[in-house]
Amino acid sequence: MSPDFLNSLTEIVKKHPLEEKIFIVPSKRDGRLAVEALAKENTPVVNVHSKTIEELVKETVYWKLLRDGKKELPQEAGRQLVYKIMKELQAANEFEYFSSIKLTPSLSESVYRAILDIKRSLGDVTSLNTSSFQKVEKGEDILKIIERYEQSRIKEGYVDRADFIKEALSDSKTALEKQVFVFFPHDAYHPAAASFINRYTDKASVYAPGYSNLKNTEQNRQMISRDSVPAEVTVEEKMVQHKGDYSLKVAFSAEDEVNQILSHLKNENIPFDQAVIYYPNANTYHSLLYHLKEKNGLQVTFSEGVPVSYYPSGKMLFAFLDWMKSGFTFKNLERMLQERSLFEPEGVSVKKMLRILKNHGVKKGSSSYRRVIERLEETGEYPELKSWLASLFKLVPVNSRYDTVTSAQFLESMITYLKNWVRPSGQDDASCRSHIILMIEQVIPHLTYKGKAGEVIAQSEFWFSQMSATASMPKPGHLHVTPVRTSLYYHFKHVFIPGMTNKNIPGSQKEDPILLDQERTAIHHFMMTSAEHIKREAWKTASIVTCLKGKTHFSYPLMDLANNKKATPAYAFIQLYRVQSGNYEATGEDVEKALTNASSFVNEETSKVSESSWWTNVLFKNGRLEKTFYNNELFAHLLQGNRAESLRQKGELTPYDGHLNKQTALLNPLVNDQVVMSASKLENLAVCPYRYFLKDILGIEAEEDEEEDRYAWLDPAAKGTLLHAIFERFYQYLYDEGKTFQADGTMEWIEPIAKTAIEETRTILPPPNEVIYELESQEILDACYIFLKLEETFSANRKPVHFEYDFGFKERDSVSIPVGEKGTLKLRGKIDRVDKLPDGSFGTVDYKTGGTFGFDEEGFFNGGRKLQHSLYALAFELLNEADRPVVSAAHYLFPTRKGKGEQVMRKFDDQKKAELLQIVDHLTAFIQEGQFPFTEDPNDCKFCDYKPVCMRHRYDEDLVQEKLAHPDTEGAKRLREVRKYD
């Protein structure tokens, strides 16, 4: 705190020891801090009260308004009212300026704030006219909004903040002559508030103590005039007076700045509660200090709290909103559950729950989850999970973002979610949750907005993103953290001000896009403008660098890591350096050069307080970890990693390259009859045994793209499932109606089937918009046309007898394929279609919705990469062994634009059957021997999803081939045998 201000305050309090002294403060916190500062200076503080102007105004007229049946309009309710009005006006084409502007919560916030500014400046908004605006259309639109706003407010009996001041101005009540008012320096005063306070305190004793008295500095729009004291000292001269009271440092990054502060406190044995950090950028320093608090238990208090999104309850609230906003995608639910902050169904782990949902085909849309609930109800499986899902969707107030819902109804469900579904996590988190619930409960009775769920979610998300919780005054034993702008009234012995870059200090202020500076001045000469805000920040900067009491440490980060560019020191920091160094011509480059000599990415000093700095220092200092680290059980994982890296460099397969030394009995389908294989698993095993090892042995799942494609509806898998369903229903329709395939008129048969299936899919997976829906629907219908043209020639003399012929699923038995003397391999699968051919044999048909890559006529097995055709042919024969059917051919059909209506045929005879069984023998040997080598062909890796965890592409190709050629690599020998079958 400024000694000048504290001295002035002390004189006032001592001059009026018994009278009621009212501190008019920017916030209640500032008044409490001032009282504490006076007490520390042994100044008796008697009969002192702190009030904001808003509180003083409400005290004056609150009971009168309450008597008249008026209600206070909460900020969020007012903003949503403005959003509703703007939406109605835009829909009715009554806007000119705002006609094509996208309505967002932030836009309605800006407009609502502008309305309050205008009302607090003019008092009577009827005097506002369009001439005050640069564009007449803009003025007319704002006048329409204000008119509708005032009509709605008055009709519902509400008063906003501006109305309180207006009522107070018309009231005759004034302060008592014996009362003493002390005005603290404020950020800004609205004209109406200034008029009220001047009138209200007209007969009382009034003081406006100066915070600083410096030449060439001016505080903006000072509300209370007083006899000016001639300024005698410049900012530079004041800096010289305090030259020994401050230090300057440059750190590599903002994180290093924080670590330097903690290191200084540790080295100097400074108690936390004697120090304060004034940060200029909450997004950076706030999050760094909160992370240290949560991870390392750092005792910290935040004067303005922290965003609710930092706490587990807040995170889960935003995750819930994201899940609904995304259309209930499985990926968002998975992310929400993996936070481990939701109550889970009893007896069902998160991993198991996610696996069940995935196996049931849940991807997106509330309908897909409800289908799972119905299936679990039918089967009686997992009753706890079924109940959990049913309760969750009972809680969710909408089925899609296109449903209509009221803000009040939606927020009620958020309260239930926080109370009953989110697991508490510590005292601070409980406080955060209580704060959110309290804020919602206070505003719900005043919310009337009703709209699409997507809009209501956006409104709620915007509101929650502005909430902070767990604000605190300084506490014993805690390091206090507060923004620079609130620093004027604190009283600490040790002050740290990081982030002194030209970007942060004094900061920038953009013009309000709703009310430009020129328009504000035209509306009322006393309205705040961006220029006035900058003047205010410049005054604060001058006050901070010259008037703080105690040892002050200024610093700035050399690198802006978020934007990957160098930062430059603030002008105030350069001025401090000039005074301290005596080089009054120093530039920013000179400051950087002089102070960065001791700054580096590797910092031994900060390694004493930071785990990451400690590791960095150890590694860079020695170039490598010493053996003592490996011998310590704390670092056993490092020893294992070091051993793995060393072994991987050998010219043979190791346990870290998929070599398990026959320890695979539980994984072997020939030994464990619970292991059921599929055609895709066997093909994956043949393409790259190591990928099979990662996917099916270790259970590693490939990372999915988390971002929703706004320009696509169905992914390839969903599109393939839809087309398969259409083709199956089409042939089932022909079969049921006793019809035969014919080209003419067939489109009229398949089109309604296709449209019905498309609509069913739409209810499960809502499209992003109607345009995308129409485009992809037409693509599906085009595929149906290509399918018919393909079938016109393909189905001649063939009779479909089975559709979606599945085995190994639900209650159907899997097929057992004999593998020599080793045993049998259980196989499951689904054959799209089985046809009876003119010679009495059968042919299998599989529809492929992708391209024909890899399905060359010459490559029958393609080195084991294409096995499905033969596996399904053999499976059909074995499943119908009593009837001795013969499958003579298998077909792949490509009925899409990408497939161009192509067809690929694979003959099936005793020779191919024998070759298939040899391939299966070799493939099962991989599992039996416990060797899963890399593929020998790098082309197999081009589109592999497992590259992030696979070692093959990280080795030199020579090392890969050396490993595969090693005489003990039995798996590689087997792989070479499989590749012979082309």
UniProtKB/TrEMBL annotation:
Q: Does Cytoplasm appear among the keywords?
A: no
Name this protein carries in UniProt: PD-(D/E)XK nuclease family protein
The record's keywords, sorted A to Z, are:
ATP-binding, DNA damage, DNA repair, DNA-binding, Exonuclease, Helicase, Hydrolase, Nuclease, Nucleotide-binding
Q: Does this UniProt record's set of keywords contain DNA repair?
A: yes
Instruction: Cite the InterPro entries for this sequence.
Output: P-loop_NTPase, PDDEXK-like_dom_sf, PDDEXK_AddAB-type, Restrct_endonuc-II-like
Quote the Gene3D superfamilies the UniProt record gives. Answer: 3.90.320.10, P-loop containing nucleotide triphosphate hydrolases (3.40.50.300)
Q: Which GO terms describe its biological process?
A: DNA recombination; DNA repair
Please give the superkingdom of this protein's source: Bacteria
Extract the GO molecular function terms from the UniProt entry: ATP binding; DNA binding; exonuclease activity; helicase activity
Annotated PD-(D/E)XK endonuclease-like domain ranges read 677-950
Q: Name one Pfam family in it.
A: PDDEXK_1
